Amino acid sequence: MTPSAAATLPRFRWVICLLLFLATAINYMDRQILSLLKPLLDQQMGWSNTAFGTINAFFQAAYACGLLAFGWFVDRFGVKLGYGLSVFLWSLAAGSHALVGGIGGFIGARSFLGFSEAGNFPAAVKTVAQWFPRAERALATALFNSGANAGALIAPAVVPWLADQYGWRAPFVVAGAAGLVWVVFWTRVYAPPEEHPAVSPAELALIAGGGAEEGTPFAPPLSWAVLLRHRETWAYVAAKLLTDPVWYFFLIWLPDYFKKTRGLDLKHSWPDLIGIYGLITVLSLGGGWLSGRLLRAGWSVTAARKTALFAFALLVLPVIFASNAPVWAAVMLIGLAGAAHQAWSATLYTVVSDIFPKRALGSVIGIGSMAGSVGGIGFALLCGALLDDYGAVGAHRSYGLLFGYCGIAYLLAFGVHHLLTPRFLPLRLDTPTIPA
């Protein structure tokens, strides 16, 4: 098929990508509401940083469990049912926050939210693998993954106003309602590409010709024991374990960072938060474009993806200076680091789809993301304890140490990932494992 012919094909797969983007935006808006309300809830409920870190640790623990469950469920029953169920449940979980009034209630609500939100990335990555040829997967993944930035961008603009006008419970209710609306559209619009009336035979050929693997929607998933015999799985696990806590740190602790180190409360820090997530939203899209562009220029999959991953790891490094920089410089440094993280994450997801067959994607994404969530548990507890130990006077020092880890985490992760997977080659999981 010629490029001109491909360009004239119906591009319904980009409509699917838009739905993935919207779900991810709602997902991250739900996650960020509590961190934005932290200064207000600190005053009303007398929370310590350790208590707040504990609440978020329970969220991460439930998210880790949910990743394993939904990863398996999506591989077994397909993305339409798996994704729809996940969003339906997390919408109920978001709304349930409006019914609680203490730390115990928030732990329960956050645990429910964490478990149910875990279906988002296993389902979204598997959907991209089914609908997009290999050369487009990195861009498609970056586009839907940028929904995380959009949600984090919208939340600081909307949550303070809703809380001021209608009380702190209102943002949770609105977020829950948004997710239920999405479920209605998903159930009406989505079908596998081979079953969808909007997809022509020519477009199916384009998708398959780009390396998409054919398979039935209900193909039996591979067991975790089989997947964990492969070093490629452990490479993904290590990369997520080391770098996901950085993104959770940005989502959870930035409002507190601006209050403790800059004296900016929620009403005055929201322009800085919007500036950070605006930069992340714009800059991270270039990350999804990079490895796909290198592939189209004739680079191998290994060279294109590794070059992109290393470049993004380098771009995070300057964030180590954020704690002592002026406000505007801190916004720029954190925004650049966040954009590099999102580009790194999108490329890492794409590497998984390059290596593993589609029937294993949900499980592999779930296992790796569970490791990232476990890292997030430890980092959340560390943040709370460190900030309480140093107190308000030592906030600059505490955040300096935390930003220091953020800066080096990606280079460390790249090194481990490279040692475990020097080349990105498709795995045949019915063959013997690669010797360790």
SSE topology:
Layout (H helix, E strand, L loop, with lengths): L2 H5 L4 H34 L3 H29 L1 H18 L6 H15 L2 H12 L2 H33 L3 H20 L11 H9 L14 H4 L3 H32 L3 H31 L4 H16 L10 H29 L2 H33 L4 H26 L16
Q: Can you characterise this structure?
A:
The protein is an all-alpha fold and 436 residues long. It has one domain (8-420): MFS general substrate transporter like domains (Growth Hormone, Chain: A), CATH 1.20.1250. 79% of the residues lie in helices and 0% in strands. It contains 16 helices and no strands. The chain has helices at residues 3-7, 12-45, 49-77, 79-96, 103-117, 120-131, 134-166, 170-189, 201-209, 224-227, 231-262, 266-296, 301-316, 327-355, 358-390, 395-420. Mean pLDDT is 82; it is low at 1-10, 210-218 and 431-436.
Please give a quick description of this structure.
This protein is mostly helical and 436 residues long. The protein contains 16 helices and no strands. It has helices at residues 3-7, 12-45, 49-77, 79-96, 103-117, 120-131, 134-166, 170-189, 201-209, 224-227, 231-262, 266-296, 301-316, 327-355, 358-390, 395-420.
Give the structural class: mainly alpha
Q: Main beta sheet: strand number and arrangement? A: none
Q: Which segments are poorly predicted (pLDDT under 50) over 5 or more consecutive residues?
A: 1-10, 210-218, 431-436
Tertiary shape: globular
- From the alpha carbons, calculate the radius of gyration and give it in angstroms: 21 Å
